[in-house]
Amino acid sequence: MAVRFGVLGDLTLDVDGERRPVPGKAGLLLAVLLLPAGRPRSVDELVDGLWGSNPPRTAYPSLHNHIARLRTALGPERDRLTVTGGSYACEVRPGELDAAEFETRLRRAQRAGQDQDWPTVDEEARAALALWRGRPLPAFPSLHESPELVHLREQHLQAAELRFEAALRAGGHHEITAELAGLTADHPLHEPIHRQLMTALHRGGRPADALAVYHRLRRRLVEELGVDPAPGTRRIFEEVLTAKEDGAGGRASSSPAAPAAVSGAAAPAAPAPASGTRSKKAGSVPAPAHPALNQIPRDTPDFTDRTAEFATITARLLEPPGDGLSCLVVISGMGGVGKTALAVRAAHGTRDAFPDGQLYADLRGFGVGSPRSAHELLARFLVDLGVPAHTVPDDTDDRAALYRARLAERRVLIILDNARDSEQVAPLIPGGGPAAVIVTSRHLLAGLPTATRVALQPFGAPDQYELLAALCGTERLTAAPPATERILAACAGLPLALRIVGSRLAHNAGRSVEHFAARFASPGGRLAALTLEHLDVTGVFEASHQALVTSPRRLDRAAAAGFRLLGLWPRHPFSVEAASALLDQPLGHTIDVLDTLVDACLLQNPAEGTYRFHDLLGEFAAQLASEETRESREQALVRLGTWYCAALERADTAMVTRPRRLAAPRTEAVLPDFADRAAGLAWITRELPALTTLVKIAGAGPRPELAWLTAGNLFGWVTAHRGQDLWERPLVDALEAARRENDLAGQAMMHNLLGVAHGCSYRNEISLRHLYAADDLLDRLGRRDWQTDVLGNIGNAAAQAGRYEEGLAAIRKALAYFAGTEDLPVVFAHTHATLLFRTGDLEGAEAVYRACLERCRAAHPSYVNIVLVNLGDVLRARGRRSEALQCLEEACRAAEDLHEDFAIADALEALARCHLHFGDAERAESCWRRSLEIAEKFGFERVIGDCLAGLDSLDRLDRLGGEGAGGRLGDTPTGL
């Protein structure tokens, strides 16, 4: 069935040739889902898109109504609207969305422009522009300034520029002059369109009009932005002016520079100097510098992104030295991140602002050869500045004084590349005047306090792809999307790595993208593959590490040693406390080591107290760590595993989920404190990937019991995150470790927790298999205290499966181990009550639930809400309306106090059933919708199903009877 979505104008939806209306908020919802098409949107994003930053209280329930209306509008294609993990998406296939087709045509036009294929540029640009039916989505003003629509409008202008450029190349200037004039009125500060209009007017024999366009543009730029026109615009102005003065008339010497999209340059255009700054008056040409002062290296033609950083640097370079100090910019970042390329690009972009020349020196702070001294470079710079070599002073301070004097009145830009530290560059910085300095370094250079600082980070996904495509061609990448994704992931956003791979692809036509992706997949193959002639990622990293190893500072050398040992933990973020345990160092010294590594750009500090490796640096650190002795590695990992096990025990204790828990081994390192249940739960959620890795490592190490002790303390997290299977890997790994060690107690622990976890996900059969295995092992061990907990879990899982007699048999077996019911663990008693309820003993169930509730209020607050839900269900089944409602409303409040989303959704669903049971359909609907909103947001499938079933039942009130009277089972399994 053919489907067509339209956003380039009024919103349209065509299904099999029929235009289908999408009214009101449902239409806005569809528009949000189509921008960009196919990307899942969370419930919060959709609410923000429909109501903005101040949504009404009814926004979340209303959203589900609008989703239902959108499904209706989609008709036979309603399955296009999908929900996964609480996020919604609208499936859009190739050729179905006009905006996607427009972008495809635009990319073709841009590629054709790069190949100078101007007929194809004209064809594709016209086809792209023909898809526009007016302003995108005029009925939804709240979206007009969204990043997606702003981007679309910018692309529309790019397509227009490409069409005009193709027309100018074909001599069609007469045909586009009027349209260009209209666009310059709509975009009074957009220089490329003005350049094209100036060219068209000049070629049409109207040089005076072309000059008028320039002067009007320059006046607006100066008045509104404080800048002069860019060099490319001034160049066309001078061509028109020269031709007019020579009487040439009618034809410019060349067309304007092609737009960035045509030329293939992904970098931002260099801004012109601001009015009143370092630039000379518009129209004048700076006197050429002495050849010795034109030292800036060649610009990178495929420079990519860095738009914000480029703007920051050039804006600072073009400011007047108002504070009396020369301009100083420091660009820092890890090796290979593109510091030099950005500095060179900024130098070329501001060349006109420094007519007295540009100096450049590689200070060799990192890499082959000894670092260059300020003494040596001052002599070279002085000779370059015109000082006779035989008169250069011998003393460094005298050289620096003469250097500053020579630069005092000169507009010179100096690039000091690859600096080791502040001490190396300080004598090379002018004291004042119009000169400016850019320093690049892998260190932050905190000793230069007046600098404007620009810290470069690795590329994000779009810029990675753009750079790789610029190097090897888009066609090769689009032909192998999965392999391309693997390559981008392997390069981890590092420009140097992308350049190596891109160059190899470009110069090895016989090697496929899949071949290079396979190189990265081999063990240890990634860094080995990232080398090409003088470009070597490992060598760059090694230089940074060696700079610390050979440093005269003791802390630097300690940081180098710490870097090697931290390489044992390369893939996960870590805290200062965890690092302290791994390094076996006091907390204060550990902080100093970590901060030194951050200053050296060998470690990242994304949030306070949190550190991590860049992906490739982590692999390099892991290689260094592998050179440590086996004993050293094992001891460090045992210290780290012990710390995580102890921290997890604290977090689980803060969650107050069970009477007994597994005691962790002692650690000398500082442990985190958890103020409440929410703090413990949040820590485990954040650290779960690290805990999973540690369980695997511990199971194969000298202390395998750390595996099941750690996994066993995930109990609270498992029961709080029902339906999520992230717990399965660490629990299975811990069970396998216990089996290898023939540790029956460890196996029993893991079987029990796996049974609990599967029970929380309502996989009752596999739950019971694990629980019976635990029961058998504990029976052999004679551990009656643990065995009663397992039997309680068997009763709970059997009840969920509807096997009530089997559940009661397990409860009776456990009761034989107790002298009286007062000795029963509270969660065991809760299961007993649930089974009484399900087998029809409502009076007995109520009595046991009430006894449970008293004990929970006194000692187990995390269970209060669940006992209240089930007690409320019993009271509902017994027809006691006010008591049932009171119970369930208190359950909702208790769940909210815990900030546990599943408990809130579950209590609301039970309250909805109670309202419907007693005839209040309106309140039932409200509770079901609130519950459904939470359940869909977090993917609680069982609650989603119950809510949808309840909402469907609202139009069948004659079937209320006893339907749904049973309580929720399996919500509080007992644990070891």
Number of strands: 16
Radius of gyration: 35 Å
Name the beta content range.
5-15%
Named CATH topology of the largest domain: Arc Repressor Mutant, subunit A
Counted by DSSP, the helix tally is 43
Largest sheet properties: 5 strands, parallel
Fraction of residues in helix: 55-70%
What are the defining features of this structure?
6% strand, three-stranded antiparallel β-sheet, five-stranded parallel β-sheet, alpha/beta, Rossmann fold, 976 residues, 16 strands, Arc Repressor Mutant, subunit A
Draw up the topology in text.
Blueprint: E1 3-6, E2 12-15, E3 18-19, H1 24-34, E4 41-42, H2 43-51, H3 59-74, E5 81-84, E6 87-90, H4 98-114, H5 118-130, H6 147-169, H7 173-186, H8 191-203, H9 207-225, H10 231-246, H11 260-263, H12 307-317, E7 327-332, H13 339-349, E8 358-362, H14 374-384, H15 396-407, E9 413-419, H16 422-425, E10 436-441, E11 452-455, H17 461-472, H18 474-478, H19 481-491, H20 495-507, H21 513-521, H22 525-529, E12 531-532, E13 535-536, H23 537-549, H24 554-566, E14 574-575, H25 576-583, H26 587-599, E15 604-607, E16 610-612, H27 615-625, H28 630-655, H29 677-699, H30 705-712, H31 715-720, H32 728-740, H33 744-760, H34 764-781, H35 784-800, H36 804-815, H37 826-838, H38 842-859, H39 864-877, H40 881-898, H41 901-917, H42 921-938, H43 941-952
Parallel strand pairs: 7-10, 7-11, 8-9, 9-10
Antiparallel strand pairs: 1-2, 2-3, 4-6, 5-6, 12-13, 14-16, 15-16
Helix pairs in contact: 1-3, 4-5, 4-6, 5-6, 6-8, 7-8, 8-9, 8-10, 9-10, 12-13, 14-15, 17-20, 19-21, 23-24, 24-26, 24-27, 25-26, 25-28, 28-29, 29-30, 29-32, 30-32, 30-33, 32-33, 33-34, 33-35, 34-35, 35-36, 35-37, 36-37, 37-38, 38-39, 39-40, 39-41, 40-41, 41-42, 41-43, 42-43
